[in-house]
Write a structure and sequence with these properties.
The structure holds two protein chains of two kinds.
Chain A lengths: L1 E7 L2 E7 L4 H46 L2 H36 L1 H10 L1 E5 L5 E5 L4 E7 L2 E6 L2 E2 L6 H14 L12
Helix pairs in contact in A: 2-3, 2-4
Chain B lengths: L2 E7 L2 E8 L1 H13 L4 E5 L17 E6 L2 E2 L1
The chains are: A alpha+beta, B alpha+beta.
Chain lengths: 187, 70
């Protein structure tokens, strides 16, 4: 084993060789050059990755600054006010819808409907239906002396408050029962 | 001579009061022409009114949306 120490600038660099010859030193130089090339390549890739990450950090910082700006707070407050306004409007529409339903059913029938959770009615074709407080309408079917309630298909418009839908469903089925078929059955 | 018309619909509830029978008939026609499908009911009797409308001077009517079915 041969160990050599060479001063390079202020530092001392040492090598240990099992055999010390020109060939071994040239091989070592080639190996070091190869490692330098590999390291440079890796550094280049890391530099690119580092640049990309820096850009990402810059973008995120800009987004953060934008979202914490005073103008966003003002926009948020405006959106919350709008939301409150819509909630109030929906509440008033619901109250108004309930009032109309109460008026339409009559106070006693309305209270019974709310208490029982369902309301029976006869359609113009003489068939018996019931509507529950969720807005599902059922048709009475009697088979072998057994009474069954079969749900019929109604499409609830999204904008209609539930009390309005209950009233509209009741009137629609009552006036035009054949337009509503049992769920899963079509004629 | 006062006819009141109440409309249930997507826009919420709309009330039209103090109308003459002709004004009320025109109003109902306007709603129907706008593409809405409504049951036109007498608010007192809950009966469906026949078209073309011939309203009494004291009529109280309500337009209830027709619900689609399947």
């Amino acid at each position: 084993m041969k160990t050599i120490a060479i001063k390079v600038g202020e530092e001392v660099v040492s090598f240990s060789f099992r055999r010390f010859s020109r060939r071994v030193v040239e091989d070592e130089i080639a190996r070091i050059n190869h490692k330098i090339e590999l390291a440079k390549k890796k550094k280049g890739q890391l530099d690119i990755r580092s640049q990309i990450l820096q850009q990402e950090i810059n973008t995120l910082n800009r987004q953060l600054l934008a979202l914490t700006a005073e103008s966003v707070k003002a926009l948020l407050e405006e959106a919350e006010r709008e939301d409150e306004k819509h909630k109030l409007e929906r509440h008033l529409a619901h109250m108004s819808a309930e009032e109309i339903m109460r008026e339409f059913f009559g106070q006693t029938a309305y209270e019974e409907f709310m208490k029982a959770g369902e309301y029976l009615f006869t359609a113009v074709n003489g068939e018996t239906y019931k509507i529950n407080i969720s807005g599902t309408v059922f048709r009475e079917e009697i088979k072998e002396n057994e009474r069954n309630w079969v749900p019929v298909c109604l499409i609830r418009p999204r904008e209609l408050p539930l009390p309005d839908f209950l009233l509209a469903a009741l009137v629609s089925v009552k006036q035009q029962p054949t337009a509503y078929q049992p769920v899963g059955r079509r004629q | 001579m006062v006819v009141n018309v109440e409309v249930l619909g997507k826009k919420g509830h709309e009330s039209f009061t103090q109308l003459s029978p002709q004004e009320a008939e025109q109003l109902v026609q306007r709603f129907l022409q706008e593409g809405g499908r409504y049951w036109i009911l007498d608010k007192e009797t809950k009966e469906k009114l026949k078209e073309p409308l011939k309203l009494d001077p004291e009529a109280q009517i309500i337009l209830v949306p027709v619900i689609g079915g399947g």
